[in-house]
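thread: overnight batch results

M.L. [08:02]
morning all. the overnight job finished for the chain we discussed friday. pasting input first so we're all looking at the same thing
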Amino acid sequence: MKQGVIYGILAYLMWGLLPLYWKLFLQVPAGEILSHRIIWSFVFVGIILFIGKRWKMMWELAKDRKRLLLMLLSSMVISANWLLFIWAVNDGRVLETSLGYYINPLINILFGVVFLKERMKVGQWIAIGLAAIGVSFLTFEYGQMPWVAITLALTFATYGLLKKTVKIDSMLSLAWETLLVLPIALGYLIYMQTEGTQTVLGMHPGMIFLLMLSGVATMLPLYWFAMATQRLTLAAVGFLQYIAPSTSLLLAVFIFHEPFTTTHLFSFAFIWGALVIFTISSLKKKSINPQVAVKIEG
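M.L. [08:03]
and the structure it wrote out:
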């Protein structure tokens, strides 16, 4: 449990700071950044597997078609999440990404009830209701639903659920998730090159090197997140996730100077209130025996 908390804090803190990194590539289209992110992530995790002599173990997983299908779904969901997040950050929507990841813990617990048959108390249902009011108010005031926030929350909650379901080694899972979308990433870059629209090759070598580090920036928090989900309940993982949106919110307001209006304050107040109620209710909930939890999570 202690290791799970440490892994969770590291993952969410790094995710919260990622907008600073993606802002370095404002001139690069989101799809091109995503393709490089996938390629260099696979290279990074591949080196780790090679050093650990674990490639054979990875290929053995291909014999289990059910697991392979779940990993394919995971890779598609997290790729969609990455693409939207990169685009939103470089489109000046860091505040909305923050909103999405504030909502995500509540989606996590809702998924836990629906798919994992976890039980919720009245306070937790009230928390979800308050969050819904906050999002509805934002939608009403601006005349459109905060689709970026909602889509980020849903895709990442789905990814967390799939990671909870696929009971395999974290690094092997990450290797398969990047490998399965690698052909798409390579194909997209080749297409851009033939069309003469690829921008990365014209960048300064130092910037290209920084983009290559996207593999490290991607795999480290994902690995830490995977280790956390194996050791903690979805509710506990959701609680730690407050770190990421809080960090991003501070970046959006004080570093990127995105407008934080009275409407935002009112909506966020409902969501923050929901998280307080949710947290108090969760702390009162009887915890699962750690030994039982380990057996459940594989």
